Amino acid sequence: MHSSSNIGPDYISLNINDFDINSRITSKSLWRQWNQLSRFQRNIFYILFGTVLILTFYFLSGSTNSNIDYEKLNLVKGTSNAAKLEELVLVDTGVHAEQVGNAETGDHDDNVDHLDHVEKEKAVDAQVIEEPEFQPEINQLDDDQIGEPPQPKPNVVKFSGPQNDRQKAVVKAFKHSWDGYVKYAWGHDNIKPISRGYHEWFGLGLTIVDSLDTMYMMGLNEDFTKARAWVSENLKFDLNRDVNLFEVTIRVLGGLLAIYHLSGDKLFLHKATDLGDRMMPAFSTSSGVPYSDVNLGTKSAHSPKWGPDSSTSEVTSIQLEFRDLSRSTGQPRFEAAAAKVSEHIHNLEKYDGLVPIFINANTGLFRKHATITLGARGDSYYEYLLKQWLQTGKTIDYLKEDYLLGISGTQKHLCKRTAKNKYLFIAELVGVSKDMKPKMDHLTCYLPGTLALGTHHGLTEEHMALAKELTATCYQTYATQPTFLAPEITYFNVQGLNEDDNQLDMYVKSTDAHNLLRPEFIESLYYMWYFTGNKTYQDWGWQIFQAFENFTKVENGYTSIGNVRNPQNTRPRDMTESFWYAETLKYLYLLFDDTRQLIDLDRWIFNSEGHPLPIYEI
Ligand SMILES: *[C@@H]1O[C@H](CO)[C@@H](O)[C@H](O)[C@H]1NC(C)=O
Ligand SMILES: *[C@@H]1O[C@H](CO)[C@@H](O)[C@H](O)[C@H]1NC(C)=O
């Protein structure tokens, strides 16, 4: 509740002394006392009695599932709630009618043949729907803590480890990086692989949680088991420490939910629910737009230290996770709080579908004249519009509409070309007059993948054409550097000032020349490969992977570097971000999956940290 809404003094008090509790209890005296009560007191009694009666009936009838209240559930045809849930089982897991029994009892063994319906002519042995080969010790916590999910748990997925040399090379890189972390930074957020130390950000073992599903997919079962044990015994959220709502949502909540869905292990759902509970205070603002920071221990939230505003992309990139938490636990409040933010922002005025990068949590309004960009602080607003629409079975129209508006605004105002080679890039608009700044963050290179995903799901082919051009430009931001690694930010030459053949399309400022092992372009290459089957995208990813090997690998892992412009002076930064494990290496592994079958993009969506969450039918 917002702090300004004080409870007034006009509450109703019941004076216990009105009842003479010492009097002899006979039916006669009870009756006399009853008659002495005022009408008001008697009414209170009736209300209390009625409430107790209703509550008793409610609990006895076993309908503790708040999920039944999900308005959407009622849209599903069916004569009883049980029938509705059964239908949802079918819808979500794709199993046939005769397998309902199995789906309900959680026996996935017989569900294998649903893959026969996957049209792509690819080997099916990569992804089989059955109990995992690796069986983690089943968590014994009381399941009553968590209501029955309104939609069933999606299929547990089995993975068979690397299938070719490139995948093996990626797993080897992961192992190298992971082993360093285990040795020198175990339980801490990040490893500093050169000094053999660690870096603490939130104190949540970020690298472990972010790595769980990657290890599971790569078939690193021993490492996964140890990581699971750490989560079970040591991942605690009652820390008196401010954390960033967005970062913890995409990394920790997303990581836990993804591995819960992939493995079926409820431990991860229990942890996710505890975390979700502790983050809810962030939404207690007058506008419903969350504060950026929340203290998981004291459960209090506030604006960032640097100012009153939250980042637009941050408050709009938590919905996949909070919705999935609701769908997985049967507790609607997580989804309700997060969806309200999207609805609020839907109703704000935008610039041809484009949004400024700051929003005030108290007023709920954008900061006027803040930069417009598809890079830092803007990026995943657009990504999550599309992905939320997909997550909810394409049933929430405004999400698709806002996404389409955002992309057409991008085409209208931000798509620019270099003078020389006509490379397409996404510029930024700054200041009151919205001046075009010919600059693109590496973060923006997520966009081609998202565009391709939209086209696959029925949006205009025009987006795919844009995706291909942007992929080529992002590739150039790598290929033009002598290290074959992209800088954090690239500037583009848009004015053909001279006829000089040596004029460059791109340039990099020395303050922007670092590479943090970021995943966005690899992510896009994966989507492009997945949807086109064009091996060029795999080859580009392989070149970049080798560049990581050549210039970021150190004795105990891989490190961010300060300078991509000089192979002789890369200025290693002694830091490994957890997204290297969660995303960069995972997307490389998926990119080199020749079957394009490991993760079915008609059934899963990746959150902004590379954690796959199931697509629901509604
Ligand atoms: C594959 O993609 C590359 C890069 O966009 C392109 O040059 C090539 O023509 C594509 N190949 C096919 C067969 O479409
Ligand atoms: C990386 O090193 C290998 C082996 O020395 C070399 O063949 C390759 O060209 C290098 N790649 C890059 C991008 O530097």
Compile the SSE list and pairings.
Elements: H1 27-36, H2 39-60, H3 81-93, H4 100-105, E1 128-129, E2 157-158, H5 165-184, E3 190-192, E4 197-199, H6 206-218, H7 221-234, E5 242-244, H8 245-263, H9 266-279, E6 293-295, E7 300-302, E8 309-311, H10 312-315, H11 319-329, H12 333-346, E9 358-360, H13 379-391, H14 397-414, E10 415-417, E11 424-426, E12 428-430, E13 435-437, E14 439-441, H15 447-456, H16 461-479, E15 489-492, E16 506-507, H17 520-532, H18 535-552, E17 553-554, E18 557-558, H19 578-591, E19 604-606, E20 612-614
Antiparallel strand pairs: 1-2, 3-4, 5-6, 6-7, 8-9, 10-11, 12-13, 14-15, 15-16, 17-18, 19-20
The chain binds 2-acetamido-2-deoxy-beta-D-glucopyranose (NAG) (2 copies).
Pfam family, one: Glyco_hydro_47
Enzyme class: hydrolase
EC number: 3.2.1.113
Task: Tell me what the structure shows.
- The chain is 43% helix and 9% strand.
- The strands form 9 sheets. A 3-stranded antiparallel beta sheet has the order 5-6-7. It has a 3-stranded antiparallel beta sheet with strand order 14-15-16, with no helix packed on it.
- The model is unreliable at 1-26 and 61-144 (pLDDT under 50).
- The protein has helices spanning 27-36, 39-60, 81-93, 100-105, 165-184, 206-218, 221-234, 245-263, 266-279, 312-315, 319-329, 333-346, 379-391, 397-414, 447-456, 461-479, 520-532, 535-552, 578-591, and strands at residues 128-129, 157-158, 190-192, 197-199, 242-244, 293-295, 300-302, 309-311, 358-360, 415-417, 424-426, 428-430, 435-437, 439-441, 489-492, 506-507, 553-554, 557-558, 604-606, 612-614.
- Helix 6 packs parallel to helix 8 (245-263), helix 6 runs parallel beside helix 19 (578-591) and helix 15 (447-456) packs parallel to helix 17 (520-532).
- Strand 17 and strand 18 form a beta hairpin.
- It has 618 residues and is mainly alpha-helical.
- It is globular, with a radius of gyration of 27 Å.
- Bound molecules: 2-acetamido-2-deoxy-beta-D-glucopyranose (2 copies).
- The chain crosses the membrane at residues 43-60.
- Disulfide bonds join 445-474.
